[in-house]
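Question:
When you can, review this sequence-structure pair and walk me through the tokens.
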Amino acid sequence: MTQLLAAAVAALGGKERSGQLQMATAVAHAFDSGKHLAVQAGTGTGKSLAYLVPSISHALSADKPVVVSTATIALQRQLVNRDLPQLVDALTDTLPRAPRFALLKGRQNYLCLNKIHNGAAAAEDDAPEELFQPQAATALGRDVQRLTEWSSTTESGDRDDLKPGVADRSWSQVSVSSRECLGVARCPFGTDCFAERARATAGQADVVVTNHALLAIDAVTDSAVLPEHSLLVVDEAHDLVDRVTAVATGELTATTLGVASRRITRLVEPELTQRWDRASASFTAAIHDTSAGRIDHLDDELATDLTALRDAASAARSTIDTSPTDPKAAAARAEAVASLAEITDTATRILASFAPAIPDRTDVVWLDHEENRGSTRTVLRVAPLSVAGLLRTRLFADSTAVLTSATLTVGGSFDAMAEAWGLTDTEAGEPIWHGLDVGSPFEHAKAGILYVAAHLPPPGREGTGSTEQLNEIADLVTAAGGRTLGLFSSMRAARAAAEAMSARLSTPVLCQGDDSTAALVERFAADESTSLFGTLSLWQGVDVPGPSLSLVIIDRIPFPRPDDPLLSARQRAVAAAGGNGFMAVAANHAALLLAQGAGRLLRRIDDRGVVAVLDSRMATARYGGYLRASLPPFWPTTDAEAVRGALTRLSSSQSD
């Protein structure tokens, strides 16, 4: 492994980085031993190379693919467009044959030729007739016309290859879910299907790059969407639990019921249609009048409405003939059956979770009233209390996994993540995993300062910063000469701070929502005097090396909302089992986010700067030490004057 990695690094014109060989060796050993490995590798370690080299080596020697799963599109693109092509070129002369790689996504990411050519693209929206207005006058019509034309020129049919892109509403007109798909044998376009061609290519690859959502679908459902494999790399593994939870979450809304209503028109008998309409209307009214929040007891009215909805959907579904030979008719029936099946399954799952025969509930049910473009969307959701069992039995039981990220230790330990992944069981008294922290090439204590504003009052519940906090932000940004990424716990707080700073400072301040996130980050990186304020997606998705980012401000410890239905239920379950629910759930959640946010500061070896946490609880609360132990080992201080002086000197040196 040492020689292979050295050859790859040399061919790529780089140099071996700190921890890279240690990680590559550990990955190779994990693949050989069958023991799962958790690797924390700081930014700049070169971890993608450290797991790709042993992955390629093992795939070729065993003639079986290695699956690499990521959480973000950006990392998928990096692997497929840069890292893997470079590695293939670098290692071709060293290996017995040239390695093959492929990118595989969920079916809904690809155009459906049958839906385009057989007219099914008109069936989804509130006003499908607008598609047929002269000259495709509407935005939806123009998009569908453009997508239809693109279908005859694209090689991939992959949504990400469409430039510029289209809205979700438009894309849904030309794509299908796995449930809606007719299948290769029945579809007249089966041999030309973009999704099937991508799967066929992946089936011949040595390294298959995919995403956590598709990995979860492959693991927790009966759909085998990934090639058969026994070796797995999970990059950005800190996001795995949330992504799997999202896939395992079911929901019922007025929109999903409306789509089902339109799809079953003319497909079922009038009596069943009327039964469905009555059940749908009654259920929609019931959830509209129900208060938001976790549902610990299902009242008789909602239970009755759910039962009626389930039974009406099931009855309608059972009468739809899915065997017609006409492709257009078959597609319409497949879509109707898919909608009804999803509704039936979700309603059944919610009802089952409240059954008296189940003393220990494994699902959490809650209602949300979400604001969306001036209207309210009511959603009844059901999600697993924990996905540890799913991951243990459906993902890690059949594959040896390497789980890696820059942030995996919480409070200085891998244990919290291992428990969330379901890896805390043992076999014959031996743990089935081990953890390794290969460190970082950065000298954190020399390159960065962790400043906790201990003198500020604890943050209140109003969601916006206090006068003292806004003064602190103004002083810090002024000292830094802009160059600030402000990470806030809510959009309300981010906007309030951005408005206050725009009025008080001479340097530009951007706020998330003013433009697309990608465009804002580009503007932020291009102008060293600019600051960018925002919320969750900026905590994990910003990579701006160099002098444009020398100050990261975190307004408060990112604990989950006390009324978060799922996390509060998990916290309560830990407490009921005798554990510390706050530390196991809320503190761990905050620690991972803090580590991700602090990780925005140092992106290359010569970066310098300050992470400023404007929440005095980091210094005064009992859990403060636990949270600080989850952060990189920056030089710590509570001295505001010293920090402003350091930022002023850094700004002056960067401006020279």
Observations:
- The radius of gyration is 26 Å.
- The longest strand covers residues 363-372.
- The first helix runs from residue 2 to 11.
